[in-house]
Amino acid sequence: MLFYMPLESYKERYTMQWSAPETGWLERNWRSVGFHYTRIDGDATERTQSIKTGSVVDGIGRSRHCFSQVQQILTLAEQGCIDDKDVIYFDDFWHPGIEALPYAFHLLGIKPKMYAFLHAQSVDEFDFTYPMRGWMRHFEKGIGEVLDGIFVCGPCLKDLVVFGGIAPAYKVHTTGHPFSSDEVLERMPGRMRVKRLNNVVFSSRWDNEKNPEFFLKVAEEVILNNTEAAFTVCTSAEKLRSNDERNLILLQQYMAKFPDNIFLKEGLTKEEYYQILSDSKIQMNTADQDFVAITLLEASVAGCYPIYPYFRSFPETFEYQKEYMYPRLDVMGAAEMVLDVLEREDLWDAKNVVSRSWIHDRFDISWKYMLHMMYADRLDLLSGEQAYAITDYVSPWDGLTEENIK
Q: Is the separation of the CB atoms in 166 and 140 below 8 Å?
């Protein structure tokens, strides 16, 4: 049995699509092949609330959620419902309470395998947790020791984890983040639009590591050369938040300076957000740190043209395709790229939209790699159909290097 420890499903974060019961990107694929698992939900009172403390997930609610999940696992183990053949999978490597499990399992004489997905953490100098590394790193190294495997989005993050001393290379598996273009399509009518608005969408967190000021500088340069260009900052949160109040003030200043060109859309449902993507030409990501880049995957499903910096994980994630990358923090270079793309009308016909489907197709099968790694030495525990479903793949990461840039 696989015991699934999901993140809280906050509507204003991607955890709703990652981890929502039954419809989450992992679960819908597991269910499609009849894979049996047990979902361990945390404190239900936290899952539908807005984030109050923190920016990615609610810091206080996160701890309460995780501890309540661990309590349930301990109860199941004590009742004899967990043994050596079982697997426990954590949606997030940073799972408070996980440190209590190895000792309890040792006392009970069992050793279920444990795996987790590592999204960034203090090992990354651009992550918001990096300033807390003095104490966080000890926790991370301890968790890296007790886990049987760690999943990461790409080779860049794997190198950070391994060379940062969090875990040895044999434990760290490059799988890509779970994604489901089918689930996105179900919420996205009319994506194949040839005639689109000259709109550039920004939907990362409005935090320092995402470089919002750089985005606004690029917007200004583009608008000065194309008065029909529009830039829309989107968020599903009721109100846009930031880890630096100056970012919010700066956005208001730019919106006042360019009232017909720079817009803020707050409190969006997924369907409303996808409608904006379907009507727009470009999705722009300006982050220093974004190992997941779900915004770009969704945008490619919608037919948008993705634009992102030639930096860190972006090149490897999108197969070193030069036509989508601008030099990092180069305002003029990024603005020139946006202007060139906006002027082309051939990039959004059905042929070109389909030609960019490789961007999200690569991640539609990430769930297979993850199950394969968790059950590689125990395929006998699965039915023939289940075993075939997680072994019948070719890794898109094989042979992918910068030397093969296209």
A: yes
